[in-house]
């Protein structure tokens, strides 16, 4: 399997751009992105559905983070999932979240277990049938932790035991996180719009273009 690129955003203009120009493979969002975009999860679901239906693009939508009762998590997740086949429902890596996951996977609802910060959480998510598992590398790094072993261990363990869950390296902040994800064999990276913009724009590429443009001018006399 090849590594996919997902956009982490609730901004519909960014999403349209990334689908059209970058052929992005999927979208992830969270309540913070919705707040910035000024939308409820229901509003966002309605709008984004129009953009992705009929494509392979999955959209991960998060349940209300206040929910602690697994039954309430299952109810909201089921209702969001029923809106589109492209939707995958984000549920936190908590004990209640795992209980809800078990129920949802048995009903065929695709779940993205989010806020994963250790291998045990990742393995529990895989055991219970998570479709995606999202370890947050940026948040760990901001607190002084190294990520290379962290991602390697999760990918090695989940794949080694033969679970079908796909690993999304999340909260990606730089091109370096793409390198770590790819070398670990992660399935997916999800990053914000500006992270992609910065990663696609390399100063050496621009410097090389200047050198080649000057050479072109010498040849053609411009
Ligand atoms: C991923 O699924 C999350 O939405 C995301 O990466 C969270 O982190 P951030 O909003 O701090 O980037």
TrEMBL record:
Gene3D superfamilies: Aldolase class I
Keyword tRNA processing carried by entry: no
Pfam family, one: TAL_FSA
GO biological process: carbohydrate metabolic process
The keyword Repressor appears for this protein: no
InterPro entries in the record: Aldolase_TIM, TAL/FSA
Sorted UniProt keywords: Schiff base
Protein name: Fructose-6-phosphate aldolase
